[in-house]
Amino acid sequence: MRKYHALPVALLAALALTACQDGTGTKDEGAAHPDPASATATATHPAEDGGGDSGTGTGGTTGTQPTKAAKVDRSTKADTSAKGDKSAKGEAAKGATATRVSCNGSNTTVTAQPVRRPLNHMLLTVKNTGSKMCDLTYYPVLRFDEMQWVPRPVKDSKPHAVTTLAPGESGYAGVSLSAADGSGEWGTTSHKLTVGFQGRTPNSDGGPSALPALPAKGVYYDSTLTVTYWLADMDDALSY
């Protein structure tokens, strides 16, 4: 019979020792101290569901992780937005081109002014007096008096893009009238100048011509007569 009483005595001693360590005098239930192995597993591998889970990991940080579906949705929206922006810009560019017209004698004022430098040069200035943007395409087609030939353009002066004028803006072309060393032929003095404009294709009709006034003494030119393309900068026009 003593063997059967020995086990309860030992069990009571263990319970008494546990109560003393807890400081409450009562038995500590398992809910207050979860199993270490279970807690470690929960912290290391937090539960995952369709919307993400907030939990404390091994590093001690807490946060909500976005799901793959959310990332794909944001990427799709970004791609759609980018495509929409490009499409809108393309439509705007087409619209801007459609609202432009050709610069010519009906929507501009043209002046022809000889300059001191460079020697034997003249500057053509075209000012947009219309209400729409206009394009100065290619180069001016010049005709002094009743001349039967067309001055050749300076190929090196061709701009990278068409010179476009907003209302009130000006474009320029430089004219080399004669050779500085006197090597030109058929030299003559002119009192009348016609400035022709080209259309969207080379040598096409761009609309009404202009008749800028020349100095009272006239303008001397010879066979070396050349003209630049239409340019947006005055100094560039006179550099050839």
Automatic annotation (TrEMBL):
InterPro entries: DUF4232. Residues 99-110 have a biased composition (Polar residues). Residues 52-62 have a biased composition (Gly residues). Residues 1-21 form the signal peptide. Residues 103-230 form the DUF4232 domain. Residues 33-45 have a biased composition (Low complexity). Keywords: Signal. It comes from the Bacteria. Residues 26-110 are annotated as: Disordered. Residues 70-92 have a biased composition (Basic and acidic residues). This is DUF4232 domain-containing protein. It comes from Streptomyces tuirus.
